[in-house]
Amino acid sequence: MSLGPLFDFSVSASEAARDHAIATVARNAGTAFMEQAKAVILERLSGTECLAEEMRRVCEDAGVVPHHHNAWGSLTNQLVRAGVLIDTGRLGKSTSLRSHARRQPIWRVR
């Protein structure tokens, strides 16, 4: 008996799809954006705890912006994988108006 498409879930397939999308966005953003953003974040936020929106803010203030807004998520993912960002296990409220006070992870920048 099939339970239908609502029950067709797979964590591994979801993670694979996520990783593929992140890799596509990162490729389109180019290595220059990723490296410039990483340098700005390490220079200005090293040793602090912050939300991803604060990383975005300091990058934009430094003139480092991606080709598409989805690249910010890809950047965060790459920085986590590189050990630059450590998940504190805590959440904070976004202050960006577009985010509507959504709860986000608080990251520790090494």
Short description:
This protein has 110 residues and is α+β, with helices and mostly antiparallel strands. The protein is built from 3 helices and 3 strands.
What are its keywords?
single chain; 110 residues; alpha+beta; Arc Repressor Mutant, subunit A; 3-stranded antiparallel sheet; 51% helix; 16% strand; globular
Question: What does the secondary structure layout of this molecule look like, with pairings?
Answer:
Layout: H1 11-45, E1 49-50, H2 52-61, H3 71-81, E2 85-93, E3 103-109
Antiparallel strand pairs: 1-3, 2-3
Can you walk me through this structure?
The chain has 110 residues and is α+β, with helices and mostly antiparallel strands. The protein has a single domain, classed as Arc Repressor Mutant, subunit A, CATH 1.10.10. The protein is 51% helix and 16% strand. The chain is built from 3 helices and 3 strands; from the N terminus they run αβααββ. A 3-stranded antiparallel sheet has the order 1-3-2. The longest helix is centred in the first third of the chain and has 35 residues, at 11-45. The model has no long low-confidence stretch (mean pLDDT 91).
